[in-house]
Amino acid sequence: MLVKGECTLAYPYQAEISHEGLHKYRVVKAQTKYELNQKVRAIQDQWDEQWQKKVEREAKIRNDEDSQAYAKEMTEQAEDIQKSMDRILTDDLDLHQFSIEDFKDFSDYDVPYPQSPVYKTLPKQPDSGDSKYNTQPTFLTKLSKKKMSDLVANDSALFHKDYTAWQNECASIKKQNESLKKTYDEEVRRWEASESEFRRIQKAENEKVDHLYDKIQSGDIEAVEWYIREALERLGLPFSYDKLIDVEYDPESKRVIVDYLFPKIEDIPTLKAVTYVKTRQEFKESYHTEAYIKKKYDSVIYQMVLQALNYIFNLKTGCPIEAVVINGKINTIDKSTGKEIEPYVLSVSVTRESFDEVNLSTVDPKAWFKSSKGVSAASLANVTPVAPIVVMSKEDKRFIEGYEVANQLDDSVNLAAIDWQDFENLIREIFEKEFRSNGGEVKITQASRDGGVDAVAFDPDPIRGGKIVIQAKRYTNVVGVSAVRDLYGTVMNEGANKGILVTTSNYGNDAYEFAKDKPLTLMNGANLLYLLQKHGYKAKIDLKEAKELNKS
Known about the structure:
This protein is 42% helix and 18% strand. It contains 13 helices and 18 strands. The protein has helices spanning 33-60, 64-85, 139-143, 145-217, 221-233, 290-314, 352-355, 365-371, 420-436, 481-494, 509-515, 525-534, 543-551; strands spanning 2-6, 13-19, 24-30, 244-250, 255-262, 271-277, 282-287, 323-330, 332-334, 339-341, 344-351, 375-376, 399-400, 441-445, 455-459, 466-473, 498-503, 520-523. The strands form 5 sheets. A 6-stranded mixed beta sheet has the order 13-14-15-16-17-18, with helices on both faces. Strands 4-5-8-11-12 form a 5-stranded mixed beta sheet. A hairpin with a 4-residue loop joins strand 4 (244-250) and strand 5. Helix 10 (481-494) packs parallel to helix 11 (509-515). The longest helix has 73 residues, at 145-217.
């Protein structure tokens, strides 16, 4: 199993995983590392289970009888998959209510506890009473006093030699055992520290999930959008494909808009049967016709639409949902250019009231779609683009295209004296670089010089991120508390998670005091220069020089 990670803009965390035995490859995307690890682990477990079943099946194929049984098993499996694609909607009616607990990690620490060492036992101590050290004298030896003395001396010398060797061996074994115990104790210490750190991180991540749940229940729009997207991405299907979903919630209309990347027709399993040809000792596969698969494909997609609607209307969130729009896309190739495209192929808008009237256990999904005035081609397999009934509109009309300023900076540029529009664009540019590492983006608003919003950052992290209001003050005097109060009011009015005030000068004590315990960050000139240097740019701030220039 291969796992390779990287970052993308739309989804900050991404991992490429593959399985050599199954010849499978997937790109897994998520908004947080924790979320990514959960998804990767789930897919890996699924693939490992599939691989194990395949290995077990192949192990059974030893003769013609086993091969025929294997072919029958594969045929039955193919038939089951085809039948299950007809039951995507009905099988999911007794749905497992998507729970925030699904995001928590309750796994055990899977590193084995260090194995106790096998200590060497001490050898038996030599016994001076053993016959080895008490040689029985011969008759002639007994007659000679000297010979008897030599015999006793030799026995005594042998004993002392063996005793000394025993002492040395015992000392060596004790030293080895002490070394084994020291190593083992160190392994246990490291294991316990690692296990404790695992539990600490696990607890902290689970507490983040609880915090996220609180945000969902309180009606935090971005948290609710994330929750809906995750619920849809976790819906089960009889086959796998790279599902990608985007969600937008409009609190005014109480409407959810879903951009749903549906499977391609090539993702639909086509295997019909497997037979074993005894004469050639090989397996022969047969496949369903193109017409059959096209019909099956349409059935799958329309069922997925109803499946998604059923889940969304049943989710418990702090935001009331009275209508849902599903815009379905397909990833395909534009034959005229050879490039990948994602055209919309269906769109439908459904109210809760009308959806409650649908009997999901007996409804014909395609007929329901047409009666609900859904828009699609006669055959989805033809990939005919359609215009969505309602499109996502996360764009603020105040946003305008910014321009680059940072590349023009050097040690001679005085930030306190540059054009105010250049300064606002510089702030947007440098914060965009700062947030980009986490998949965020920063947009500048139309110039107004009214103390309003100068830029808005969007941090996609569902737990600590959100909408961040940025105001830029190219001041030469100390920034007072009134500007900080204005920023706080703007944060509240914008429904933002945080506010950042950036100035070329500094702040008064009253400004810092007001910002305490509020979601506000005050950045002075020194902070700004540090941020510029962090991203490879240099400039200066000379307030005295700027004041003189303003006078002239």
